[in-house]
Write a structure and sequence with these properties.
Number of helices: 3
Low-confidence stretches: none
Radius of gyration: 25 Å
Strand content: 15-25%
Largest sheet: 5 strands, mixed
Distance between the termini: 84 Å
Shape: elongated
Order of helices and strands: HEEEEHEHEE
Mean pLDDT: 78
Helix content: 25-40%
Structural class: alpha/beta
């Protein structure tokens, strides 16, 4: 009896694994830019920006190029934004505020919002900018 036994060699199918990994990669590529606090704005540059103080979690107020106001990531009208900030100021009096304004927004609008936040009595309002590259 010299019957030949056919030996089966198991072969791993990696296609489902690759599919899952690619889907996860795409999800992370889409979600990661949205993790940043506040609305997406094109920030102006500055030569010597101050380093951020990470002691307290700041509240981010954004002014987009289309004139929309955002408190963290929630879009609000200016009156509603000021009301929310007033409530926040009463709850957390030491909370710092970061103002992110798109470089395309008129300076008078940025200054008006900055003044409104100062009038509420926040201890510090920071204008967020990006560091100008050194040549």
């Amino acid at each position: 009896m010299s019957a030949r036994r056919s030996s089966l060699t198991p072969e791993m199918n990696v296609t489902p694994l690759v599919d899952v990994v690619l889907v996860l990669l795409i999800i992370f590529m889409v979600v990661t830019p949205q993790i940043e606090a506040g609305a997406a704005v094109d920030l102006p540059t500055a030569s010597n920006p101050d380093k951020e103080n990470k002691e307290l979690e700041p509240t981010t107020v954004s002014l987009a190029s289309n004139g929309a106001f955002y408190l963290d990531r929630k879009e609000l009208k200016k009156d509603a934004l000021i009301a929310e900030l007033k409530g926040l100021r009463e709850k957390k009096p030491d909370s710092p505020v970061v103002l992110k304004a798109d470089r395309g927004v008129r300076y008078s609008e940025v200054r008006s919002l900055f003044k409104s936040m100062q009038d509420l009595g926040f201890p510090g309002i920071n204008l967020q900018v990006v560091d100008r590259p050194k040549h």
